[in-house]
Specification:
Elements lengths: L25 E2 L19 H26 L13 H9 L6 E3 L5 H7 L3 H9 L32 H15 L5 E6 L6 H13 L3 E7 L2 E2 L2 E2 L19 E6 L3 H18 L3 E6 L18 H8 L3 H12 L4 H22 L20 H16 L18 H6 L1
Parallel strand pairs: 1-7, 2-3, 3-4, 4-8, 7-8
Antiparallel strand pairs: 5-6
Helix pairs in contact: 1-2, 1-3, 1-9, 1-10, 2-3, 2-7, 4-10, 5-6
């Protein structure tokens, strides 16, 4: 019988090990002031891609600021910001081919921004209006785009990690030369799905990159209360998988690490684990108050490592960006986000029939009956519902009839 295990060294007394002698280094290329470290690896990010990356970072920061304000104004039910983690998300996405698949968690809007998701598409999903591809059946920030190879977000934590392995296995069988990137937080790495996924990826040798955004907290639980080991990167060794720890606020380091991880994944059908050490400068979500579990002093220390400012200073030093461009782009993006939001929030909700459409090829009789009961209920109590009812089309017919047309 064959085995993949190498012969172990023989000892004649109990010999335990706990991995204390393993210390994973932190890969970084840029100092907090945007200056490259001396003797660092060659930076392969060219000017065109660097500008595209920075635009996506700035756009994401502006989108987050505006939409969090909208949530506080009662115009949006829920929101989650990427603020402080833009480098980890956008840097890894930029290192992929645009047709590589991404399965994200819920804080990766920067990946979509980099790939060209429009402001209209962001807003239609956030407000769940009639143009939302999911017909308002998802919470805000649960984006998805078949065209941009970005799987729709799921709320349950870590479900996307084993799904990414399955998708990557399909890519391996298809032989397309693509890989899958799955992004998650260190809190999700404490879920059983994480370990099942790593084991499956290692056994079946699939082209998947696991990117953990280690931002220090699983909502309010600090890493010291989550695990005793050396972070998340060290867990790869149990699955005989290569891993790297990278400065998650250094977009150049994230880009180079992911670029090499992609090469390993595609050329050798080898899964790779990346741990990006970063920090969310905002709350976990619009429902969270971080002042209850972390200090202002801690937050200010991380603000000095802001990935957006670090990338901007690097671009300025290279002559690939200037202050006038910064002002113009910032003003343009703020205006675009605000004006698009105002239009999106005024659009009609999805037609009532979409509650049961787009799920099955043919609506099951039980769901059809429930829809008829709902329509009858609305007709009996018209004063309990807004006059701009989505269950009536412009001709006054039912949404169910409209959806069948």
């Amino acid at each position: 019988m064959t085995t993949t295990r190498s012969a172990a060294k023989t000892v004649h007394a109990p010999a335990f090990t706990n991995g204390d002698d393993i210390h994973i280094p932190l890969f970084t290329l840029l100092k907090p002031d945007g200056k490259p470290y001396a003797g660092g690896a060659t930076i392969s990010l060219d000017e065109e891609k660097a500008r595209r990356v920075y635009r996506a970072m700035l756009y994401t920061r502006i989108l987050d600021e505006r939409m969090m304000a909208a949530q506080r104004q009662g115009r949006l039910s829920f929101y989650m910001q990427c603020t402080g983690e833009e480098a980890a998300v956008i840097g890894s996405t930029a290192a992929l081919k645009d047709d590589d698949m991404i399965l994200a968690q819920y804080r990766e809007q920067g990946a979509l921004a980099y790939r060209g998701f429009t402001t209209d598409e962001f807003m239609d999903q956030l407000f769940g209006n009639e143009r939302d591809p999911a017909h308002g059946r998802q919470m805000p920030i649960h984006y998805g785009s078949r065209a941009l190879h970005y799987q729709t977000i799921s709320s349950p934590l870590a479900t996307q990690i084993p799904q990414a392995v399955g998708y990557a296995y399909g890519q391996k069988l298809a032989g397309t030369g693509n890989c899958t990137l799955t992004i998650f937080g260190e809190g999700a790495a404490s879920e059983g799905d994480f370990h099942a996924a790593l084991n499956m990826a290692a056994v079946h040798k699939v082209p998947v990159i696991f990117l953990c955004r280690n931002n220090g907290y699983a909502i309010s639980t600090p890493v010291a209360e989550q695990f005793a080991g050396d972070g998340v990167a060290a867990r790869a060794f149990g699955y005989r998988m290569q891993s790297i720890r990278v400065d998650g606020n250094d977009i150049l380091a994230v880009f180079e690490a992911t670029r090499e991880a992609r090469r390993l994944a595609v050329e050798h059908n080898e899964p790779v684990l990346i741990e990006a050490m970063t920090y969310r400068l905002a709350a976990h979500s619009s429902s969270d108050d971080p002042s209850g579990y972390r200090s202002k002093k801690e937050e200010e220390a991380w603000r000095k490592k802001d990935p957006l400012a670090r990338m901007q200073r690097w671009l300025l030093d290279r002559g690939w960006w200037n202050e006038e461009e910064e002002r113009e782009l910032t003003e343009t993006l703020r205006r675009e986000v605000l004006e698009t939001m105002k239009k999106a929030e005024k659009r009609r909700p999805p037609a009532l029939g979409t509650l049961v459409s787009d799920v099955y090829a043919e609506t099951p009789p039980l769901l059809a009956e429930q829809l008829r009961e709902l329509e009858a209920h609305i007709q009996r109590h018209p004063d309990a519902y807004p006059k701009s009812a989505p269950w009536l089309n412009e001709e006054g017919g039912s949404a169910r009839e409209e959806s069948r047309a």
